[in-house]
Design a protein that fits this description.
The protein has helices at 3-21, 27-34, 38-44, 48-59, 63-70, 78-102, 117-135, 146-161, 173-184, 206-215. It is mainly α. InterPro entries: Homeodomain-like_sf, HTH-type_TetR-like_transc_reg, HTH_TetR.
């Protein structure tokens, strides 16, 4: 097997072991899981730390999520499509958060050598484009562009999934999508005398109603 393929195979075998055992996983365990001799690990990685860095890079690699987004059925109703999108994003985030926790890290790792801001921006833009493509057919039902919708979906999903930010009470994909669709649905022109979107059923502006509640 070529060195790059061997390296990738070892990383793939190591990732679930790290999630289970943390950095204490032994190279012997890794070799057994990868089906290679222990010495083979050190022919493609200079040391165990280098292997752990490669595992982190793999855990944060967006390619699997991007491939899954491309398979979302565009014929489904918008809400169902978005629930699938959020589930894909949440799965990736939980994997990344779990990996950080397993390694005793409290924040994202430093970018790997050779990584630059342009690559990060390209990855973020590719994600926005992928989600925008999922909602593009229903763009007229939203009051923001598909790209802006994708940006907000990413922010809300991240904060609603991160165990510390959500205080241990993560939102479901369905709840996240409902917040997005209600908050970003296109506003229809109200008929004369009917409440506006910014008013409560009695016709009182919501902002004023909230202000009075706070004052009380």
């Amino acid at each position: 097997m070529p060195p790059d393929e061997r390296r990738a195979a070892i990383v793939e075998a190591t990732l679930p072991l790290v999630l289970r055992d943390g950095p204490s996983v032994s190279t012997r365990q890794i070799a057994e899981a990868a089906g290679v001799a222990e010495g083979t690990i050190f022919r493609v990685f200079p040391d165990k730390d280098a292997l752990m860095r490669a595992v982190l890079e793999r855990g944060f690699d967006p390619r699997d999520a991007m491939a899954a987004l491309a398979t979302v059925d565009r014929s489904l109703p918008l809400r169902e499509r978005l629930i699938t999108v959020v589930e894909i994003v949440q799965e990736r985030l939980r994997g990344a958060f779990g990996l950080l926790g397993a390694l005793g890290l409290h924040r994202s790792p430093r970018p790997p050598e050779g990584w630059d801001a342009h690559r990060r921006d390209e990855a973020n833009e590719a994600f926005r484009a992928a989600v925008a493509d999922v909602v593009a057919g229903d763009g007229e039902s939203l009051r923001v562009t598909p790209a802006e919708f994708a940006h907000t979906l990413r922010l809300l999903t991240f904060s609603a999934t991160h165990p510390l930010i959500c205080e241990g009470r993560p939102m479901t994909a369905e709840a996240i999508v409902d917040v997005l669709l209600v908050g970003m649905a296109a506003r229809t022109n109200p008929t004369p005398g009917s409440p506006t979107p910014d008013a409560d059923p009695a016709g009182t502006p919501v902002a004023s109603h909230h202000a009075r509640t706070i004052e009380v």
